[in-house]
Amino acid sequence: MEDGVKFCEDDFKHEFAEMSSETVMFPKYREKYIEQTQKYIEKALEAKKISCKIDMGERTIDVMTNRSTRDPFIFVKAVNFVKLVSRGVGIEEAMKVLEDEYFCEVVDIKKMASSEKVFEKRRDRLIGPKEMTLKAIQILTKCHVLVHGKTVSIIGSFKGIEEVKKIVVDCMNNIHPMYQIRSLIEKRKLEEDKSKEGEDWSRFLPKIKKSNKKSKKKVVGRPSGNMPLDVPKRKEDIEMETGEYFVDGDFDFEERESSRERKKKREEKKKRDVEKYVPPDE
């Protein structure tokens, strides 16, 4: 293990007081693969002194300890091994979980998205074109990562799993994986540089920003309160303020009177013209 402590079977000479068992179900699309690799699954668990029973009819795998089992934690690892195989991980990669140096975690990413469309878009972003983003993550973290369906399966060391999990969670929260990938590249370079030991690395790491952040437009509306908006002044109002309205008032009055008289004459003429075409009473 990472702390240097390894399991020694000689330290546990007696069998367990109670046997443990757990049933793991696998989907129909994995039925053919598990049927083909059944003997390899049983052999891998048998090497760790764990019993296994595969029921193809019920599509279940029973994992059990036996009288020869001595490692208290191997049962948990065996269950994780079977779960990974059921979720689409190849048996060669899943078998690593049975070793002391490897661990695993399954991250449910479906619950992190607000809609199906957003989920698919961000999952594709995590995988990247031609799986290039996923391959970069695996190389930098030295973990096996499988994005399958609504989950992400991670196999590796504790440190690597935490790094991958952070990338996955940030990606589903609309932070592009490239920010974390660049950060990991810089960290690997700084780890090799002995002169940077004990220093604060934050100034060397790229700043993480959210992508596609929509800026809210400021809505300019009517100010609060019951006072009306400023109304533009009329020509008459401006003339009244300057005094021009009162100086030319007589002229304006005469003009208005003459226009009324002309209008009245036009109406009378129109009325006379209409009367010409009215037929006389019989």
UniProtKB/TrEMBL annotation:
Q: Mind listing the GO molecular function terms for this protein?
A: RNA binding
Q: Which family does it belong to?
A: Belongs to the KRR1 family.
Q: Where is the segment annotated Disordered?
A: 212-242, 255-282
Record's keyword terms, sorted: Nucleus, Ribonucleoprotein, Ribosome biogenesis, RNA-binding, rRNA processing
Biological role: Required for 40S ribosome biogenesis. Involved in nucleolar processing of pre-18S ribosomal RNA and ribosome assembly. Essential for vegetative growth.
Entry GO CC: small-subunit processome
Q: Which domain of life is it from?
A: Eukaryota
UniProt protein name: KRR1 small subunit processome component
Residues forming the K Homology domain are 101-173
Q: How does it assemble?
A: Component of the ribosomal small subunit (SSU) processome composed of at least 40 protein subunits and snoRNA U3. Interacts with snoRNA U3. Interacts with MPP10, KRI1 and with ribosomal proteins RPS1A, RPS4A, RPS4B, RPS8A, RPS8B, RPS11A, RPS11B, RPS13, RPS24, RPS25, RPL4A, RPL7B, RPL8, RPL23, RPL25 and RPL28.
Q: What is its main location?
A: nucleus
Which biological process, per GO, is one annotated for this protein? Answer: rRNA processing
Organism listed in the record: Encephalitozoon intestinalis (strain ATCC 50506)
